[in-house]
């Protein structure tokens, strides 16, 4: 019997496969593949958990952002109301200030008018006294002049006070 190279290659292959089965290589390979599959499954589960956690955090941050925007809008609205109130108050105070200044100016004008009238009256009285004195000086003698002058001065003093 003549064996050619194909037969020896076949026998070598069978021996090799028998040796692999005897050394339990397929079990080791299967165990390694199972461990790798378990590891991949665990990684996928971890990735899924992390994704859900990320989605939860995203939803929470979006909720917080909306709350912050609402709070900011409230603050802006309150600031606008306060600014409007301050502007109204400033306008009212300005109007009151102008009214007080006008009243004070009118009061000063009236006082100046009164002082001017009194000054004119005083000047008129002085002029009248001087004129009366000259007229009496021409018409009356010394004793009559003195009596009339004293009476006139007393009357003018009583009227002015």
Automatic annotation (TrEMBL):
<dbReference type="InterPro" id="IPR002146">
    <property type="entry name" value="ATP_synth_b/b'su_bac/chlpt"/>
</dbReference>
<dbReference type="InterPro" id="IPR050059">
    <property type="entry name" value="ATP_synthase_B_chain"/>
</dbReference>
<keyword id="KW-0138">CF(0)</keyword>
<comment type="subunit">
    <text>F-type ATPases have 2 components, F(1) - the catalytic core - and F(0) - the membrane proton channel. F(1) has five subunits: alpha(3), beta(3), gamma(1), delta(1), epsilon(1). F(0) has three main subunits: a(1), b(2) and c(10-14). The alpha and beta chains form an alternating ring which encloses part of the gamma chain. F(1) is attached to F(0) by a central stalk formed by the gamma and epsilon chains, while a peripheral stalk is formed by the delta and b chains.</text>
</comment>
<dbReference type="Pfam" id="PF00430">
    <property type="entry name" value="ATP-synt_B"/>
</dbReference>
<keyword id="KW-0813">Transport</keyword>
<keyword id="KW-0812">Transmembrane</keyword>
<dbReference type="GO" id="GO:0045259">
    <property type="term" value="C:proton-transporting ATP synthase complex"/>
</dbReference>
<keyword id="KW-0375">Hydrogen ion transport</keyword>
<dbReference type="GO" id="GO:0046933">
    <property type="term" value="F:proton-transporting ATP synthase activity, rotational mechanism"/>
</dbReference>
<keyword id="KW-0175">Coiled coil</keyword>
<comment type="function">
    <text>F(1)F(0) ATP synthase produces ATP from ADP in the presence of a proton or sodium gradient. F-type ATPases consist of two structural domains, F(1) containing the extramembraneous catalytic core and F(0) containing the membrane proton channel, linked together by a central stalk and a peripheral stalk. During catalysis, ATP synthesis in the catalytic domain of F(1) is coupled via a rotary mechanism of the central stalk subunits to proton translocation.</text>
</comment>
<comment type="function">
    <text>Component of the F(0) channel, it forms part of the peripheral stalk, linking F(1) to F(0). The b'-subunit is a diverged and duplicated form of b found in plants and photosynthetic bacteria.</text>
</comment>
<keyword id="KW-0066">ATP synthesis</keyword>
<feature type="transmembrane region" description="Helical">
    <location>
        <begin position="6"/>
        <end position="23"/>
    </location>
</feature>
<protein>
    <recommendedName>
        <fullName>ATP synthase subunit b</fullName>
    </recommendedName>
</protein>
<dbReference type="GO" id="GO:0046961">
    <property type="term" value="F:proton-transporting ATPase activity, rotational mechanism"/>
</dbReference>
<feature type="coiled-coil region">
    <location>
        <begin position="30"/>
        <end position="107"/>
    </location>
</feature>
<keyword id="KW-1133">Transmembrane helix</keyword>
<keyword id="KW-0406">Ion transport</keyword>
<comment type="similarity">
    <text>Belongs to the ATPase B chain family.</text>
</comment>
<keyword id="KW-1003">Cell membrane</keyword>
<keyword id="KW-0472">Membrane</keyword>
<dbReference type="GO" id="GO:0005886">
    <property type="term" value="C:plasma membrane"/>
</dbReference>
């Amino acid at each position: 019997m003549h064996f050619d190279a194909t037969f020896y290659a076949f026998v070598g292959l069978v021996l090799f496969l028998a040796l692999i089965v005897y050394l339990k290589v397929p079990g080791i390979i299967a165990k390694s593949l199972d461990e790798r599959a378990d590891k991949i499954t665990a990684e996928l589960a971890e990735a899924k958990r992390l994704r859900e956690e990320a989605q939860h955090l995203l939803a929470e941050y979006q909720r917080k952002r909306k709350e912050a925007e609402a709070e900011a809008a409230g603050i802006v609205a309150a600031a606008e109301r306060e600014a409007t109130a301050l502007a109204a108050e400033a306008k009212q105070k300005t109007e009151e200030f102008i009214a007080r200044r006008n009243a004070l100016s009118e009061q000063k004008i009236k006082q100046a008018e009164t002082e001017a009238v009194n000054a004119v009256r005083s000047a008129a009285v002085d002029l009248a006294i001087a004129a009366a004195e000259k007229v009496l000086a021409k018409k009356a003698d010394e004793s009559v002049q003195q009596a009339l002058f004293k009476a006139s001065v007393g009357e003018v003093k009583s009227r002015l006070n």
